Amino acid sequence: MNIRFLETFLWLARLKSFSATATRLNTTQPAISARLRTLEQELGVELIFRTSREVHVTPEGLGILRHVEAILDLAHLIENDVTRDGEPAGIVRVGVVDAILRTWLPRPIEALRTRYAKLSVEVMVDTTVQLAKSLREGDLHLVVAIEPIRDLHLTSIDLCNYAMAWVSSPRLVDPAQVYGPIELAQLPLIGYLRQSPPDHLVAEYFEGIDLSRARISASNSMSSMIRLVADGLGVAAVPPICVAREIAANEICVVPTVRAFKPVSFVASYRAVPNSIAITTVLEAFQRAAGEFAREHGPDLAWAP
User: Fold this and answer.
1) Cα–Cα distance, 196 to 199 (Å, whole number)
2) N or C: which end of the chain has fewer CB within 10 A?
3) The CATH number of 90-160+264-302 is which of 3.40.190.10, 2.40.30.10, 3.30.365.10, 3.30.2000.10?
4) Whole-angstrom distance, CA of residue 33 vs CA of residue 28
5) Alpha-carbon distance 24 to 143, whole Å?
């Protein structure tokens, strides 16, 4: 059903004149007649009847007119939400891991909200595994996770690198001791879900070490792990920049270690939707925020004991 035909019927009902309607819609009277005739044929009812002086709406037409008004109101709302003159509009669904939420994510969200009135960003926080699943299935448009998400129509770019370290409650470790992997394995460990990307980093750290007797708890949330660490329930491997406030408050300390972690890389993966200004705008905002954060906290991001 053609929106222009519905609009023609609406203005005929309001103006009660073919000539006035043609002027209002910047077309000719024959064009108005043709649109009305086509619409009546599609609906199978007569919508308008003429008297000697003006046109009137039939009872069937009055019943349809209220639906036409609702349809056209919705169409105008859609038009107003469509990108115009290069301005991004719509809803971009973004997924991030905890480390990004705890560091620079608020910056681009606030910047986008301030600058673009028609652009909304919805955020999901989850593990890399779950975010990858949601991106592949089309539930998310852009994901920032620990590794690139590979699939047809997906593109990935590096955003930032964080140093990793073991952290603990000051009550649980000896600040004068430098811990090796064997000594760490004797402490209660708070780890990540098995076979997840951060779990692979921890497994690589303990390569060659027997963990069969280690006390290991697992969590799918870095924020939960940090809370457990602060409560003295174990040590965990996290980027120190993610617990900067807890370190400053002396709730958590970085454990001196013999063996260092490799830095953890955070990658933006996104659905390559053609001509999606909205996705491109959010991605660029994330790149700027990650770059600014790195420049401000460079030594802290790279530091590890």
Assistant:
1) 5
2) N
3) 3.40.190.10
4) 9
5) 48
